[in-house]
Amino acid sequence: MTYQVYDTTLRDGAQREGISYSVVDKLAVARLLDEFGVGFIEGGWPGAMPKDTEFFSRARTELNLKHAVLVAFGATRKAGVAVAADPQVRALLDAETPAVCLVAKSDIRHVTRALRTTGDENLAMVRDSVAHFVAEGRRVFLDCEHFFDGYRFDPAYTSSVVATALEAGAEVVVMCDTNGGMLPSRITAAITELTERLGHIVDGPVPDRLGIHCQNDTSCAVANTVAAVEAGVKHFQCTANGYGERPGNADLFAVVGNLQLKLGLPVLPDGCLEQMVRVSHAIAEIANIAPDTHQAYVGAAAFAHKAGLHASAIKVDPVLYNHVDPTIVGNDMRILVTEMAGRASIELKSRELGIDLAGHPEALGRVTNRVKELEAGGWSFEAADASFELLVRGELPGEGPVRPFTLESYRVQVEHREDGAVVSEATVKVRVRGERVIATAEGNGPVNALDEALRVALSRHYPELASFELADYKVRILEGSHGTGAVTRVLVETIDGSGRDWTTVGVHENVVEASWHALVDALTYGLSRSPVTTR
Fold it and tell me: Torsion over CA of 12, 229, 140 and 99, rounded to 10 degrees?
């Protein structure tokens, strides 16, 4: 049996707080997961949720999956109801998917307290439901809810649920750590014991017919999933980016990365692994959740190096401080410039930005010292590559970008009017190409007004500024400083009409002055890269 990568982002992952997929969203996510090469996509619970019913209806004509099989999720028949008469069973069949996944109780305490039925009736529900779908030509997976907790409480009964499903024709029975409380050693022990119990009813290796589904309440979901596969399990269920209720599920990308790159298991089709970062970030955007910068394999910081010691080694050989080649998963290595940076970090980061400092040791030393000095005062270049590049080029002979203006003065005032309206107005006095310019503008805040006034002053000489847009503005009070006079760091993200974006930084006790530094760097950097300005 080959490995089965089973994704449940659209069902279990959608239970994360704050996620609400439209049908169009679900179709888009399914296409992305298929591009990543997963074997099965659990699309939702038809009949229980109208949105999911519509999804399966549209999927029949709108999804052209190349790698994945679409799966409809539902429950076994209800207690005391004939399987053919259960409307939820009919809804699963009406979804017309090649495979179905049924959830069943496998902890006797849940059977008697939650379902309020007997252990024997629960086994009959499993047997009847699995056999019914197999007879209808469906591939059947059975999720044993609360498997590990149930197995620890009453291993004989929980084992009987698994045995019943396999005897009825289930392709795989999935052991679910529903409460997310297991540790890898307990996962391995349970699988080993279950294998011994079921050896007499399964042809071939028992783990080939078992699956794993782990919640992340102990932050062990990925480790538990890998442990199950190492114990012989071939079917594993995950969600993109670990989405799911409470702390989430096993992260699809971390599990696949570990299995394929660390254990050498062929879990994805050729050429799919390199789509990992793109698919992860695209799904995050659809879910309207910012990508986790520190997520394993796919995060922007997954291969980012800050310490000077790391950078020195990376300069010799990147493999020395990267656990895998980041390009294998579609990521890239980054060097962070901070107060911890040494000459190697500065040199590597500059090279990353297209500046070779290897032949300019004096400039390299000046930049290194300047970075340490500024960082000690609260500046941070980790997320402000544009400001760092301006600093570096300013230390190279003939390389420094020409500032588009020189400041004479600026003034910002905020007026609270009688009718409750609050209006900000800024006036800037600058010299542009030998001309003294005074410009005034209003804005929805002092920084916005200052930005608008500066653009008015420069627009006649630099019309390309019209395509620059302030995309994001972040303010942070630095640690160790308090009150209204605290040192403030401002990050400004700017984007132009071509889609290029860059981030600049400013630091000062006055938030307006900090913003001014970041704004000036933003315009200077953008103009230095503009084909209109540089031609």
Answer: 60
Tokens of 85: 């008469």
Strand partners, 476: 489
Instruction: Indicate if the alpha-carbon torsion angle 130, 133, 139, 140 is positive or negative.
Output: negative
Task: Tell me the percentage of the chain whose pLDDT exceeds 90.
Answer: 61
Query: Tell me: the pLDDT tens digits for 484-534?
Result: 557 888 888 999 888 888 889 899 988 899 999 999 999 999 988 776 554
Angle, helices 276-287/23-36, rounded to nearest 10 degrees: 170
Tokens 């540089």 correspond to what residue? Answer: 534
Whether 442 and 449 have beta carbons less than 8 Å apart is answered as yes
With residues binned 3-state (H G I as helix, E B as strand, rest as coil), the percentages for the chain, rounded to 5, are 45, 20, 35
Gap between the Cα atoms of 165 and 239, Å rounded: 24
Asked whether the beta carbons of 175 and 228 are under 8 A apart, the reply is yes
Residues 349/338, Cβ–Cβ less than 8 Å: no
pTM: 0.71
Residue range 340-361, pLDDT digits in tens: 445 666 766 677 777 777 777 8
Shortest CA distance to 430 belongs to which of 400, 404, 412?
404
DSSP-based three-state secondary structure for 402: coil
